[in-house]
Specification:
Strand content: 15-25%
Structural class: alpha/beta
Strand order of the largest sheet: 2-1-3-4-5
Number of strands: 5
Helix content: 40-55%
Number of helices: 5
Length: 130
């Protein structure tokens, strides 16, 4: 049995998805991509993911609305959702948290930031006794 973890990358920009995919595959994640909020919602219903990396600025259904939909379903209530955004104001970060996101990863990001974030998510998923 593989210990490879599943990650969903949601971003309307193909280049952004490619960059994230490369970073995550180097960390032994299996990466599934969605180009829109509705596509992400369908995938979350079909597959189990360990984490979702969610772009905020997408046409139609943005990342905030998509996250609210994920949170409204019992299966998505505990799924870690991390905002991927170039928006860095305190107000925008607060909006992410209020929508149900667990953390914010600012674009552009580097490998060290990704490692720190994934480490925090891994630790919180294992619980306080880990």
């Amino acid at each position: 049995m593989s210990d490879r973890r599943n990650i969903l990358v949601v971003d309307d920009d193909e280049i952004n998805r490619m960059v994230v995919r490369v970073l995550m595959e180097r960390r032994n994640y299996r990466v599934v991509e969605a180009a829109s909020g509705p596509e992400a919602l369908d995938l979350v219903k079909e597959e189990a993911f360990d984490v979702v990396l969610m772009d905020l600025s997408m046409p139609g259904m943005d990342g905030l609305e998509t996250t609210r939909h994920i949170r409204s379903d019992a299966a998505g209530s505990q799924l870690p959702v991390v905002a991927l955004t170039a928006h860095t104001s305190h107000k925008e970060q607060q909006m992410c948290l209020e929508a149900g996101m667990n953390a914010v990863l600012r674009k552009p990001f580097d490998s060290e930031q990704v490692d720190r974030l994934l480490g925090l998510l891994d630790h919180s998923a294992k619980g306080p006794d880990a």
